[in-house]
Amino acid sequence: MKAKAVLILFLLMMTNTIFFTDSASSQGDASSPSLQRMEQGWEYQWVESVEADTGIPQTGWLPTENVKELDEPREDREILYLRNTFPDGGWIDPAIFISFMYGTFEVYQGDQLIYQFGNIPEADTVTYRGYNRRHFIELDPTVASDQITIRSYSNGNLIGVSGAVSAGSHSSYLTKMIRDDFDKIVIGAIQIFITVLALIFFIIKRFSVLYLAYAAMTFCAALYSFSITGSKQFIIDVPYVWIYVFQIAVFFRSAFDLMIIDKLFGPGYKKWVRRLWQIHLGLAVIAFTLSVTNPDYFTVTKGIFEKLSGFEVLLILAIVIRVFLRNTDAKIYAVGFLFMAGFMIRDLLVFTGVIYLKEFYLLGHIGQFALVLAIGIILVRQHRGAGDRLKIR
Predict the structure, then answer these.
(1) CA 330 from centre of chain
(2) Cβ count within 10 A of residue 24
(3) Is the separation of the CB atoms in 131 and 102 below 8 Å?
(4) Distance separating alpha carbons of residues 340 and 369, to the nearest angstrom
(5) Which of 360, 347, 344 is nearest to 39 (CA)?
């Protein structure tokens, strides 16, 4: 029977992952030419320090095939120049869109400064100041040059472009971005409402840890939904705020998932699962505190929690397989968990470039919402069951 359960769960995960990847890919293929990735033709040049920088270099440029996360040796240099030619797309309101940037930076059209984010130099560490933020850079119609140069500065451990660089219509992109953000905002709002309800039941149930863990997990899922929107910066545009929001959503989430596993499917897993979520929660608090002290710690802690969360997902999957045939609640949890895991894996593959889409679109928030709903259904079932038992007595 366990072999059958493993096969069913595997097919569910593969089906939702492949289907939604194909769906998003089809959306990209059918999209209008209002957006074009600038992936080819990039050149770069390092400058030792701000003091040694004398302006846009005229010679010495080197080609690079990967402008995102440039892996050419940096050697602690503070200034990185990147340049490319803006494509001729016939747009009425041409603009450049950068999804993520490390440090502070400037963008030039020819020799004309057309965009500035932060200052060069800055006294504070600025690695993540422009990260998790979209940059919309309209071209100057009075400038004849189509050469685009990015002057990037960082006194931390990362520098340059972190996300995609695209060219297209400014108005069309903003319209599409708001439309694409609609489901994330709605899902996030619903999850905030569920969080409040869970906290109310936490009090009603005489401070049951299960309801507290559910409220915390749902709150993390809501923060994640809001943090992956492009329009978030039109509401709050303060450096580092959305980095911390994203960090809370990702770093703490797995600990609360394990707390729920601990309370739902014990006692066989309680001892070591409980120790694991306690360790994870302690590490998350330390990592968040370090990042508040110095945002550059986010780099180190991000890698640690990616590996730790990956291990915990596999661990939860093993538990789900083991308890799948135990009862209806276990089956409901398994469906929600597989949607969450499948969609998050799909997003990771897209973000790292293993799966290429013409238009970058995330689905992890939908998977997380599926798990939130699944656990909510289980809690409602248990609450009604308890009520029925009281009536029988």
Answers:
(1) 28
(2) 21
(3) yes
(4) 8
(5) 360
pLDDT digits (tens, 9 = 90+) for 10-54: 444 444 444 444 443 333 333 445 788 888 899 999 999 899 998
Q: Are 42 and 67 in contact (CB under 8 A)?
A: yes
8 Å CB contact between 89 and 36: yes
pLDDT digit string (tens) for 307-333?
888 788 888 888 877 777 677 888 899
393: pLDDT confidence band, cut at 50, 70 and 90?
A: very low
Residue with tokens 């309101």: 93
